[in-house]
Amino acid sequence: MSAVKLSWMALTVAVLVTSVSALNILLTNDDSWASANVRATYSALKSDGHDVILVGPAVQQSGKGGTVVFPTVNITAPGGEFGSIPVGAPFFGKAVDDPNIFYFNGTPAATALFALDVVIPQFWDNKTINLVVSGPNEGQNNGPFLYTLSGTIGAAYASIERGVPAIALSAGNSTHRSFTTNTGQADDPANIAGRLSANLVAALASGFDGVSRLLPLGVGLGVNFPIFGPGSNCSAPPFTLTRMTGGATIDKVSINATTGFPQFADFIAPGLNTVHSGSPILPGETPISAGCQTSVSVFSVDYDAPTELAEPVQLHLMPLFGKTQLTAQT
């Protein structure tokens, strides 16, 4: 079936998993190694038979994008997120009750790179990582604007740029909470996010032969769960194929009349939602995840403009190339 003939029914997929190909998975995030979402996802992936190592930031690192900052001191006050690491502890360490759960006191992208280059070679038998799973974030990361800002996505695209397939997962439930608050019930939002994440990984891993790539080189998945769980009417949001643009928002700034300080509001801007690549018939992930559906967008880390858009600009600038400035025309 050609892309233009895809129907809305074909774009909405509820994944039912009957068998799982076991993967070696690096799990990380930006909300810290002690967040409820990442620990629930760790448990869900392990229960599906995957070999999982969790390496997460020692503290909350939201909004860092792809920034790489390594620690220069050990853990400082007030300690690890939710009191999970004492002040003065080493910048890197592991959980006392699970040898495959680690913290690292760096940004999300730095954490992913440290895991790939140090933790896995030295502490995990140098296993080949089949997939990096980043998240689920506490809050959605819809659209290209948040793509550049999100630490969750930053850890994913840093991994992709290193050549490792990766998925960035973000959840509408934005409450920042410790894994110790997990109710243990299936309808706990962290457990719903964990199970959905594991279901998506299982679908991606279906038929995996242990040798081939799960995703093409330089390509990743951006996933946004809606708000679900207690207090909402959504508990089983089907997976839906989407694109990043389409209803995506960026900040629009104004001055607050009361405080006199800048404030922002969401703004659907034309430059952010212009379709340059991918299938134009796909719905945008922002409106899809606003309902009871889970958006799944395929992205590339190649930022070059398509040839048909780049070529006119290149030709216009051709007289400048090889020089430091345009010469005077006679």
Automatic annotation (TrEMBL):
Keywords: Hydrolase, Metal-binding, Signal. Belongs to the SurE nucleotidase family. Residues 1-22 form the signal peptide. It comes from Somion occarium. Residues 25-233 form the Survival protein SurE-like phosphatase/nucleotidase domain. This is Survival protein SurE-like phosphatase/nucleotidase domain-containing protein. PANTHER family: 5'-NUCLEOTIDASE SURE (PTHR30457), PHOSPHATASE, PUTATIVE (AFU_ORTHOLOGUE AFUA_4G01070)-RELATED (PTHR30457:SF0).
